[in-house]
């Protein structure tokens, strides 16, 4: 194993909590922990994956600082593949900080850089790069569904597919190699067709992965949703109802404060990012509202626009204007207040917008929200949200590399079609293989690794 030092960090979220965990990893983890830990058992002798009760004591003056549970995981059977000790303290920012400070002050331990634990797991071959990146997504994931996609990736679903692809390409490369070494006419001819077929196969697998990219991005970042409509149609009520029922658990990530306040909700597993702009929320006049720069930006950026109309009112000129302005955009029209006597002429409405894009609801009675959920699912996931394969490509770096690999394969196909010698074609195929390798961290530069892992928060 490489020559490394021992690192420590608080691994649980900063703030008040039931317990807080300090994670220590490295060759001296157990020995260092022993310096401060008083217990009945000698942890130097303890088995891997055992938990020990005891106290953290300041060796300088014997002061008892915390009552803790200490867990030992000896490498390579740990997250980093190094010796890992986890100290579960009673929480409270002050207590956990005191313990960490003590470890850093008295011990040969240094504070971990952001993402350093995961980086070590990667460098020690425990996980590959797509899995490491998935850990970032796990930390950030905004909804159940995004979580399960990230989970799946962390388990290696994407890297499995990429590895299979690379395997095909390496076989192809070997095949080409043999034919370069033993060039007989008919064999070479066959190889040309063979290369083409093989490259086309790989291309269509990459296409399949790239097709999931849009959906993956949505799951990762949420469908940016703007709610628009005339005053008093029920926009605020809808927003409140959605937020109250479906508020997503949002993990705090330092350094991601945004200008626009947004609400994340998870509607049937679909993450929505409801843009909460001053314009959309507060300005009452609809024309004026659209004039407000911020809400205009929000509208332009929106992946989904919920246009609210009232069933108990006749269609208004402002409604017609709005629908005209939103033509060609992904709009779901919500016919609100179905609990009141209907007035709106629905034939006229369906002459302007398609019937499939209209959902009837009563925010007041909380009815119709399920249908809204289905409509969104239909619009963004072809209605097959629950179907099993959760291998989504959602990382910009992955999308770029898949694009490069695809291009290299297209180059190879075109080269064979043009009758270019196969030792030249081989370069394109090798290029595709290398691009895919970069995806899983097989051939990545040191600086890229640093860049990826610096996105982590401390203690991961
Ligand atoms: P906004 O101006 O579009 O944000 O509309 P609000 O959310 O402030 O709602 C305007 C009024 O409509 C409020 O008095 C709501 O209680 C009422 N309202 C909202 N949704 C419904 C509904 O489904 N049925 C009925 N009867 N009233 C509703
Ligand atoms: Zn309002």
Automatic annotation (TrEMBL):
Top-level EC class: hydrolase
EC number: 3.6.-.-
Residues making up the signal peptide according to the UniProt record: none
Residues given in the record as (6S)-5-formyl-5,6,7,8-tetrahydrofolate binding sites: 23, 86, 126, 460
Keyword Nucleotide-binding on entry: yes
Domain of life: Bacteria
Cofactor note: Binds 1 potassium ion per subunit.
UniProt-listed InterPro entries: G_TrmE, GTP-bd, GTP-bd_TrmE_N, GTPase_MnmE, MnmE_dom2, MnmE_helical, P-loop_NTPase, Small_GTP-bd
Gene3D superfamilies reported in the protein's UniProt record: P-loop containing nucleotide triphosphate hydrolases (3.40.50.300), Probable tRNA modification gtpase trme, domain 1 (3.30.1360.120), tRNA modification GTPase MnmE domain 2 (1.20.120.430)
Binding site for Mg(2+): 236, 257
Pfam families: MMR_HSR1, MnmE_helical, TrmE_N
Record-linked SUPFAM superfamilies: P-loop containing nucleoside triphosphate hydrolases, TrmE connector domain
Residues annotated as domain TrmE-type G: 222-381
Assembly information from the UniProt record: Homodimer. Heterotetramer of two MnmE and two MnmG subunits.
Function: Exhibits a very high intrinsic GTPase hydrolysis rate. Involved in the addition of a carboxymethylaminomethyl (cmnm) group at the wobble position (U34) of certain tRNAs, forming tRNA-cmnm(5)s(2)U34.
Family according to the record: Belongs to the TRAFAC class TrmE-Era-EngA-EngB-Septin-like GTPase superfamily. TrmE GTPase family.
Protein name in UniProt: tRNA modification GTPase MnmE
């Amino acid at each position: 194993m490489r020559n490394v030092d021992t690192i420590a960090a608080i691994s649980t979220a900063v703030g008040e909590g039931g317990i807080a965990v300090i994670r220590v990893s490295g060759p001296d983890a157990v020995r260092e922990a022993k310096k401060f830990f008083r217990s009945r058992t000698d942890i130097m002798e303890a088995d891997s994956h055992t938990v020990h009760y005891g106290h953290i004591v300041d060796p300088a003056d014997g002061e008892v600082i915390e009552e803790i549970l200490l867990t030992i995981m000896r490498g390579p059977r740990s997250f980093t593949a190094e010796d890992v000790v986890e100290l579960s303290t009673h929480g409270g920012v002050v207590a956990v900080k005191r313990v960490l400070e003590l470890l850093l002050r008295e011990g040969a331990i240094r504070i971990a850089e952001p993402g350093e634990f995961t980086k070590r797991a990667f460098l020690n071959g425990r996980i590959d790069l797509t899995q490491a990146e998935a850990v970032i997504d796990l930390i950030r994931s905004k909804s159940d569904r995004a979580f399960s996609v990230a989970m799946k990736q962390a388990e290696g679903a994407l890297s499995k597919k990429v590895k299979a692809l690379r395997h095909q390409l390496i076989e192809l490369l070997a095949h080409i190699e043999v034919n370069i070494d033993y060039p007989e006419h008919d064999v070479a001819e066959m190889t040309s067709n063979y290369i083409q077929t093989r490259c086309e196969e790989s291309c269509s697998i990459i296409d399949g992965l790239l097709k999931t990219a849009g959906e993956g991005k949505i799951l990762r970042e949420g469908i940016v949703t703007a709610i628009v409509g005339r005053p008093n149609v029920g926009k605020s009520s809808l927003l409140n109802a959605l937020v109250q029922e479906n508020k997503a658990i949002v993990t705090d990530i330092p350094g991601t404060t945004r200008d626009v306040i947004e609400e994340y909700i998870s509607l049937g597993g679909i993450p929505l990012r409801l843009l909460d702009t001053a314009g959309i929320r507060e300005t009452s006049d609809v024309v004026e509202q659209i004039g407000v720069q911020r809400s205009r930006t929000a509208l332009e950026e929106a992946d989904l626009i919920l246009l609210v109309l009232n069933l108990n009112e006749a269609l208004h000129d402002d409604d017609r204007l709005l629908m005209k302005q939103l033509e060609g955009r992904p709009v779901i029209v919500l016919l609100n207040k179905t609990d009141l006597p209907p007035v709106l002429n629905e034939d006229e409405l369906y002459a302007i917008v398609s019937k499939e894009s209209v959902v009837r609801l009563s925010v007041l009675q909380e009815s119709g929200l399920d249908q809204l959920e289905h409509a969104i699912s239909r619009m963004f996931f072809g209605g097959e949200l629950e179907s099993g394969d959760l291998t989504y490509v959602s990382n910009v770096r992955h999308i770029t590399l898949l694009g490069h690999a695809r291009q290299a394969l297209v180059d190879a196909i075109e080269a064979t079609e043009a009758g270019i010698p196969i030792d030249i074609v081989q370069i394109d195929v090798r290029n595709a293989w290398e691009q895919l390798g970069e995806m899983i961290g097989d051939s990545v530069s040191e600086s890229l690794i640093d860049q990826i892992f610096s996105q982590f928060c401390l203690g991961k």
